[in-house]
Design the sequence.
């Protein structure tokens, strides 16, 4: 049976793709919009029978991330799956469909004084997209990333098998933790259709202590701040090339506790630099995420943050990110061509590797991503390939997008 | 060919490369390794090898691969689910002699350790620098980091700080095909699939860790611990709900019921409030200003819930005294019952009163007693089913009650194990929690790491799947076809 007829026979909302549906410039032949996990399973069974290359889409905000997308037969749009399935405030857990926008979930949780402890670095992110990309922001220092908060998943394999892992209790070691494998897998292992997260109480009070330092003062200041016992929710830096570096410490907690901690944070800084509490810290990546600019993710061990920051800014990159965890983002100058980007990657990757980390290209114009190795060297790729072979032997899910050509 | 031949070949291979005392096949000595912390499962291994390095581990695994002989890794053998139960025809690779702390870097908040390093030894080394390793299973004085990685160990403080998976950044492993690879990186967010996340908690079925990079946390500025006595567990449970509901995330909240208190008193004279039908141990840690505010609020919630006595530890010695009763609870139960089974079920915290009531009923129906010690903050119950093996029928009744408790946890949306692992003990219960498709899908991971199925076989999953040969899988691409696809990469 033809894929279109097969999908229609299962009452799945399906239509021909248009230029509005293009993934990284590739227009899909068909767009399916299933309304349930069972419909996703039926969709994948049909796609599997037809050998249709399939890309999963939430809100499409990070679909370009990774290596350039393949020619695709089917776009699996999870926009029809946005339901909140269960919120148990007393148990601090929530279960929702993967197409639900993160902002909608947070809005719902707000009335209970709770939140999912992740930031939203790209506006419009869905829960599925959050899991697939493991995108994170400043608060990862305190509450981690989707990797640490996802406690249960329902997935649909490339052949349409429905499977679950984890559950809805935070403490649970029964069986393999497929939540971890799904997190950051960029839609190449299986389709996540439902997710259960642990929640955190929304702190009653918060405030930033911020400071500007000369680039050569970044290292001692970070070392100092990392050693405090202030337990900040975030420790961020913003380093435009050739300028001073802004360091921000976010304190979150109780109404009674935060003022004293903020005062302590300011005292810690004030002896060494000028306090700047008027700085604007609603956090964004240092690059635009509309596909026009090249944005890198740089990781390293904690003690090397200043070293990597200096190297990247010297190459003309604007660096921003979580100095308290060793996860930074860098924007390449708009004028940077493939050769410039490749050169920057070569030197930064060598340095990051010396310091236990890596450099990947998150977002960039398609021609640039086609011209450079966006993922760089990755250890354990042999096992990763074997996982892909087990989960998706026909290579239907976003082939070529992930590390090592997976 | 008999079973003896392959193991003989493995023994010969190992003897040729390792010191004589590192390879054990004397039946008397083998018997000393016949169980882990789950004492009623006993199997003598066919061969024991005492590994002292990653090379030793790789050598042993390779020998097993060549002869298709199963292997099981063992740390200190403190596990409570029979995860390190030996295989009768296999090799037990003992990791406990492989115990050096390789590197401590306070500046990077990292330490690199051998898998045989004792959990508490990590913090012992790093505390003077102001840092510690957060996972704190009750066995932390003797359990190994390698075991913690295998089991994704928790402990009382994982309520606030998370499990071992949160605190391991990278691991060098010998995979079940005898290769060595590094999972994860020293930095967070290693690109690629989170194979480290899958490995941690896989109970030794995906290979053996030979070096582990752990995350260190800064010592908290302030720690406050208090003990609260209640008339019963329902009142104590109400206090827990009120504390969590107020947005406080304590470092730990532990609960003990009357029987558990009785046992602890008998064993360690912990001097808990007389007449208490339930006690809470609450620990708060963090910046001073925050802890002061939270302590006042938590005490208030306990009083509101009916606590008749609250004791705040004035110093470390008093804190240790409060914890002594809780930490000794499992062993202490030996004082009030000749035999017991420890369960590890998890429930949503809000179901606690209902589950405790039903647990009393099902125990009474079966004529056994249940003592309860649990991590109340995250709903991880440790019911201790008490019985006397010498009384005919009691062992079976206890086993039955134990299974019924797990059913009860599942009926309330919980889990069969919160931190002890599935191991040999609970594999049979896995189908109650997961569908066949769920278990088959998990085993795809097994097939990727261990296609021969020789790494700790028989644990976790009730039935192994044959990799690559199961009907319904590999519909499109046969392994032979995969070989051709290799060039696509």
Sequence:
């Amino acid at each position: 049976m033809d894929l279109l007829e097969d999908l229609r026979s299962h009452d799945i909302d399906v239509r021909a793709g248009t230029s509005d549906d293009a993934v990284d410039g590739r227009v899909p032949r068909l767009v399916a919009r299933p309304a349930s996990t069972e419909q996703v399973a039926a969709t994948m069974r049909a796609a599997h029978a037809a050998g249709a290359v399939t890309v999963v889409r939430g809100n499409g905000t990070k679909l370009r991330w990774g290596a350039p997308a393949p020619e695709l037969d089917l776009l699996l749009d999870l926009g029809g799956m946005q339901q909140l399935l269960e919120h148990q405030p007393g148990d601090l857990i929530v279960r929702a469909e993967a197409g639900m926008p993160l902002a909608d979930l947070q809005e719902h949780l707000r009335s209970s004084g709770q939140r999912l402890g992740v930031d939203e670095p790209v506006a419009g992110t869905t829960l599925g997209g959050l899991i697939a990309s493991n995108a994170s922001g400043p608060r990862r220092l305190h509450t981690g990333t989707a990797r640490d908060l996802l406690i249960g998943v329902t997935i649909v394999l490339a052949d349409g098998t429905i499977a679950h892992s984890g559950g809805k209790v935070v403490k649970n070691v029964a069986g393999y933790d497929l939540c971890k494998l799904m997190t950051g897998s960029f839609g190449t292992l299986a389709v996540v259709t439902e997710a259960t997260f642990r929640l955190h109480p929304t702190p009653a009070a918060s405030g930033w202590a911020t400071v500007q330092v000369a680039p050569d003062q970044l290292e001692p200041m970070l070392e100092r701040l990392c050693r405090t016992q202030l337990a900040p929710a975030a420790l961020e830096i913003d380093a435009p090339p050739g300028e001073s570096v802004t360091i921000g410490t976010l304190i979150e907690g109780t109404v009674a506790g935060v003022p004293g901690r903020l005062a302590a944070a300011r005292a810690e800084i004030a002896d060494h630099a000028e306090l700047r509490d008027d700085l604007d810290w609603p956090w964004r990546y240092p690059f635009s995420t509309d596909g026009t600019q090249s944005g890198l993710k740089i990781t390293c061990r904690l003690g090397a943050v200043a070293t990597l920051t200096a190297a990247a800014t010297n190459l003309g990159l604007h660096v921003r990110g979580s100095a308290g965890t060793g996860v930074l983002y860098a924007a390449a100058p708009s004028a940077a061509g493939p050769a410039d980007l490749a050169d920057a990657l070569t030197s930064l990757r060598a340095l990051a590797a010396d310091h236990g980390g890596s450099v990947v290209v998150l977002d960039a114009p398609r021609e640039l991503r086609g011209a450079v190795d966006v993922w760089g060297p990755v250890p354990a790729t042999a096992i990763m390939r074997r996982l892909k072979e087990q989960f998706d032997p026909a290579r239907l899910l976003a082939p070529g997008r992930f590390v090592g050509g997976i | 060919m008999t079973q003896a031949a392959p193991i003989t070949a493995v023994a010969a291979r190992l003897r040729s490369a390792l010191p004589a005392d590192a390879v054990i096949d004397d039946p008397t000595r083998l018997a000393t390794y016949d169980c882990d912390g789950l004492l009623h499962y006993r199997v003598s291994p066919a061969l024991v090898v005492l590994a002292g390095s990653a090379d030793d581990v790789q050598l042993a695994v390779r020998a097993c691969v060549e002869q298709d002989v199963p292997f099981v890794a063992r740390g200190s053998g403190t596990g409570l689910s029979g995860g390190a139960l030996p295989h009768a025809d296999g090799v037990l690779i003992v990791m406990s002699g492989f115990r050096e702390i390789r590197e401590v870097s306070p500046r990077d908040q990292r330490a690199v350790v051998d898998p045989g390093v004792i959990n508490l030894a990590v913090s012992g080394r790093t505390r003077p620098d102001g840092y510690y390793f957060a996972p704190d299973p009750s066995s932390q004085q003797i359990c190994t980091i390698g075991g913690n990685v295998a089991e994704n160990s928790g402990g009382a403080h994982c309520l606030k700080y998370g499990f071992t998976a949160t605190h391991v950044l990278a691991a060098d492993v010998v995979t079940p095909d005898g290769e060595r690879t590094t999972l994860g990186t020293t930095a967070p967010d290693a690109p690629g699939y989170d194979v480290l996340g899958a490995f941690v908690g896989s109970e030794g079925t995906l290979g053996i860790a030979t070096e582990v990079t752990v995350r260190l946390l800064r010592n908290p500025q302030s720690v406050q611990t208090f003990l609260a006595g209640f008339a019963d567990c329902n009142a104590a449970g109400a206090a827990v709900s009120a504390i969590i509901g107020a947005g406080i995330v304590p470092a730990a909240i532990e609960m003990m019921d009357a029987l558990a208190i009785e046992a602890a008193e008998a064993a360690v004279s912990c001097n808990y409030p007389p007449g208490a039908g339930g006690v809470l141990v609450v620990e708060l840690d963090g910046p001073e200003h925050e802890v002061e505010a939270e302590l006042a609020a938590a005490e208030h919630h306990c009083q509101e819930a009916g606590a008749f006595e609250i004791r705040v530890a004035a110093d470390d010695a008093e804190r240790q005294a409060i914890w002594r009763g809780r930490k000794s609870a499992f062993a202490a139960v030996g004082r009030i019952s000749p035999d017991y089974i420890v369960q590890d079920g998890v429930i949503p915290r809000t179901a606690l009163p209902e589950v405790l009531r039903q647990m009393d009923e099902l125990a009474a129906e079966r004529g056994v007693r249940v003592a309860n010690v649990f991590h109340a903050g995250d709903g991880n119950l440790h019911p201790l089913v008490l019985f006397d093996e010498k009384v005919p029928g009691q062992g079976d009744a206890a086993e039955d009650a134990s299974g019924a408790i797990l059913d009860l946890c599942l009926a309330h949306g919980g889990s069969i194990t919160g931190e002890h692992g599935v191991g040999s003990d609970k594999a049979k219960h896995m189908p109650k929690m997961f569908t066949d498709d769920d278990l088959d899908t998990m085993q795809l991971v097994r097939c990727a790491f261990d296609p021969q199925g020789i790494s700790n076989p028989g644990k976790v999953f009730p039935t192994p799947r044959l990799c690559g040969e199961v009907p319904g899988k590999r519909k499109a691409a046969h392994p032979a076809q995969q070989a051709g696809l290799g060039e696509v990469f």
User: Anything to note?
Assistant: The CA atoms of residues 329 and 405 of chain A lie 23 Å apart. Chain A touches chain B through 105 residues (CB under 8 Å). Chain A has three domains: 1-202+379-406, 205-275, 295-371.
